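Team,

Forwarding the record for the chain on the shared tracking sheet. I've put the sequence and predicted structure together so nobody has to dig through attachments.
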Amino acid sequence: MNIRRAYSSTPPSKLKWPKRIAKGIAIMVAPTYIGATIYAQTDREFKRFFRENVPCADVCLRTHKEIAYNVDRFVDYVRGIEKEHLTEKDGIVLIEEGRISEESVLKTLEKKPEPAPSKTQEEIEREAAKKKMQEFVVMIKEIAKLNDVGGLNGSLVQVDKSVEELVKDGAVDEGFKELSKQFLELIKNQMNLVEQARKGEMSELTKYYENQKIQLATEIETVMMDELKKQASLYQENMTKQLEKQKKEMEADFKRRVRKQVAEERNGQLSKLSELELELKVLEMKVKEENELTKHLNESSKKLLFANSILNAIENPTRVNFSVPLNGLKNECSTEFVKEIVKEIPEEVSNAGVMSEQSLIDGFREIIPRVRRVAFIPENNSSLKNHAFSFLFSSLVFKLHGNVEGKEVDCILARSENWISKGNLEMATRELNSLKGWPRLMALEWIKEARKTLQVKQAMSAIQSHLQMNQLGLI
């Protein structure tokens, strides 16, 4: 008879090999778990590694701790019983007060041990194994009682019945392993039941806490509302009293002031008349100052109107004669600053007008291809051959874009186009003005028109700023 017959009703020949492998793996893994759990109690580093990397490590450690605690309690309990109930079989007699009489000693000495029947070595080993197994089962039962494990006592009945068969078959070691495995499984099941009970208690406590919380919040809200109503009522009463008091004080103060004012008016008519005369003089002076200021503002507005008219003429797509507003600006302005700026604008420019910025931008786009065609003509040799070479070579060269450094014609044109795209006509004019030779000749007319437009625009902007500062009284 082997171990399987003690725990399974199925004959060994009918068990399939997967079950055998699974049970063998479980038998091999269980001692490893037990050994690792015991070693983790002595080494902190291994305990930390065991808990982080091994599944169910916390359950094993907690189970080992509870088993060790219960075993210690059981051992202490058994030792206490042994001290209280020592038998006379070993030749020891207990005396209540710790004294041993001569008769008891003589009886103990005279008592001769009975000769034990001779036994074979195999029977002695079987009896020792049986005794160990019985002690192990008794220990498990006591632990189950101490832990109050309901389902464990019933399962241990089968274990107790199987002890005799295990001893007879000589499968003590395997029986220990199987019993250890069953014991661990029972402990784990019990721990799961305890954990489920704890979770149920926790959910009940949570529900109770939430109900108490809601009830307490409702009670607090009710108390707060009652207190607020009381405070509002007291505040209303206090405010009514304060208003009545202030009303009486204001009525008394008003009557006192009326009486005082009537007396002062009766006695101070002459003094008031003199004060009114002085106030009239002050008012007259203020009116004169206001008239002068209004006149000054009107003159400044008129001058600004002339300057705005000239700027509007500059922005007109067609050339517009702005000599009339320019002459009006000359006649109306009395400051030397404005006169000097107006003198700088030639009369033929005001009569003929200037090109607008948009017209200049359109003209710039027209002259750029012509400037590129003559970009490679030498300054001192403008033969037909050089013209043809420049025309062909310029069509093969890639156009540059952006703020490109360099003094070559393509670099200057790229910078000019960059400034034109940003709306900076002044910088584009400066770049084209740096051209030399035939490229400069092709762009010279556009440069002159751009200079005229910039000159008039800058002059009018300076005059506008000067007049605005004059209006504010800053100059």
